[in-house]
Amino acid sequence: VSFIPTSAIPALQNNKYINYLKVRLGYSTSAGFPGAYETRPVLGIATRTFLDRASTPVNVNAISGTLPNPDLKPELQTEFEAGIEGKFLKNRLTLDLTLYNRISKNQLLNRDLDPSSGYSSIKINAGQVSNKGIEMGLGYTFVQTKDWNWKVDALWTINRSMVSDIPSDLKEIVYAGYTTLGNFAINGQPLGVIKGYYWQREAKTGQRIVSATGDYISSQEIGIIGDPTPKYKLTGISNLSYKGISFRMQWEYTCGGDMYSSTTRSLIARGVTKDTEFDRAAPYLLPGVDANGN
User: Fold this and answer.
1) Strand runs (DSSP E) across the chain, as ranges?
2) What is the pLDDT at residue 171?
3) Residue ranges in the chain modelled with pLDDT below 50
């Protein structure tokens, strides 16, 4: 649903400053379906899997390790969006502002089963992920002649996600990486928080705790060590054209967001980066406190 004030309101027609103005509201839904053969049992048949000593081909029949779930439903994504579009100052200045709220329900997740059941997992509907954000685009045409045209556009985006409705027996879901270091979906947390082992810190000072042998003390269990969600993203686009020939440049900037790099860790551990350009044979006193904060 949209409303265009510059067409509906006579006072805004042929306005010198407001050339075009549009207000819009939108609502949409879409579905994500599970893979084939996850709602009913099937028998997998493989012909000529191998040959025995007499060169006789052997066929193999097997059932899947995933327990079929006849009550499985598609995922459902719903989104509500509101925005405004405008052109000002003889169409030189453009504005596109969008606010959205996107919710994904009935996520398709794997639940582990006891191997004694004869199956390793079952596909279930659980979990909800909400994404709320703002997208704003601004553009200005600096040069507009018969042969030359130069326009610069800037796009600013921000998104915040939240996970909920994961069953209590699942607690959390790792969907990238490993169970001891990876991206997790956890109730009440942004989607994709990074969990792993970390250095224990003293509660008051926040300093790392040092053991009696002089080493930092690692945690006994994994915990949240980072959030990959950026604070915001910026995109800049410059488009310069001359008689049908155009030159386009684009810049991307991401503010915030954590990332774990195994490559960087390996390079630092091997001493092949500038971070280790010091005398590694010399003694160093690293900051830290004991368990009592001393």
Assistant:
1) 2-3, 18-32, 43-51, 57-63, 66-67, 75-88, 93-105, 108-112, 121-125, 128-144, 148-164, 172-178, 181-186, 193-196, 223-226, 232-242, 245-255
2) 83
3) none
